[in-house]
């Protein structure tokens, strides 16, 4: 939540994934437990009494666009990967299960974090995706999105990861 609240104050545009990595590298970041979802009407960027996690980022790398196998390998070998997806009304209303929506195609318009993947015996392959909308959305702030399908909300179209020191 700190990134959403504070990036604009430090001349970052709050939308570019590369800028998110630069913000974390220069300013550090709080764990979610030290910077929880803000209450309506609260200060925009709250100071916390914690020391930010300083992360040594030596570079930012873009994955080959539209290559889900490459994305899967990166998640397995490197760790979480920042991606852009197309969000529609059905995505906004997601509660649980593997999200598969034939209308989830179009321009990517929202950044999320792919943290894993798996297979459901009924719904098939899926990505495990962390969203920034807090723990009351989806499955405690996460969504399982269909993998290996045309209707994937563009999940592999724009993907970046940071090379950590």
Structural commentary:
The chain is of the alpha+beta class. The chain has helices at 2-6, 17-27, 68-77, 89-92; strands at 57-62, 81-85, 98-99, 110-120, 124-130, 142-146, 158-164. Strands 1-7-2-4-5-6-3 form a 7-stranded mixed sheet, with helices on both faces. It is globular, with a radius of gyration of 16 Å.
Separation, N- and C-terminal Cα atoms = 24 Å
Shape: globular
Fraction in beta strands: 25-35%
Number of strands: 7
Question: What's the SSE pattern?
Answer: HHEHEHEEEEE
Radius of gyration from the CA trace?
16 Å
What's the total helix number? 4
Helix content range: 10-25%
Strand order of the largest sheet: 1-7-2-4-5-6-3
Largest sheet: 7 strands, mixed
| Average pLDDT metric | 85
Q: Supply the helix-strand structural class.
A: alpha+beta
Unreliable runs: none
Brief characterization of the structure:
This protein is of the alpha+beta class and 165 residues long. It has four helices and seven strands; from the N terminus they run ααβαβαβββββ. The model has no long low-confidence stretch (mean pLDDT 85).
Task: Label this structure with key terms.
165 residues, 7 strands, alpha+beta, seven-stranded mixed beta sheet, globular
Secondary-structure topology with pairs:
Elements: H1 2-6, H2 17-27, E1 57-62, H3 68-77, E2 81-85, H4 89-92, E3 98-99, E4 110-120, E5 124-130, E6 142-146, E7 158-164
Parallel strand pairs: 3-6
Antiparallel strand pairs: 1-7, 2-4, 2-7, 4-5, 5-6
């Amino acid at each position: 939540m700190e990134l959403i609240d504070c990036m604009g104050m430090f001349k970052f545009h709050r939308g570019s994934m590369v800028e998110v990595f630069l913000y974390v590298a220069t300013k550090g970041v709080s764990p979610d437990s030290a910077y929880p979802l803000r209450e309506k009407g609260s200060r925009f960027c709250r100071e916390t009494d914690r020391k930010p996690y300083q992360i040594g980022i030596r570079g930012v790398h873009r994955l080959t666009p539209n290559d889900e196998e490459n994305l899967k390998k990166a998640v397995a070998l490197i760790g979480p990967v920042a991606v852009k997806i197309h969000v529609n009304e059905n995505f906004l209303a997601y509660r649980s299960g593997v999200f598969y929506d034939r209308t989830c195609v179009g321009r990517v318009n929202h950044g999320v974090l792919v943290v894993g993947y798996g297979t459901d015996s009924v719904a098939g392959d899926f990505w495990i995706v962390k969203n920034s909308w807090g723990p009351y959305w989806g499955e405690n702030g996460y969504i399982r999105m269909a993998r290996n399908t045309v209707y994937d909300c563009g999940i592999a179209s724009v993907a970046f990861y940071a090379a950590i020191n």
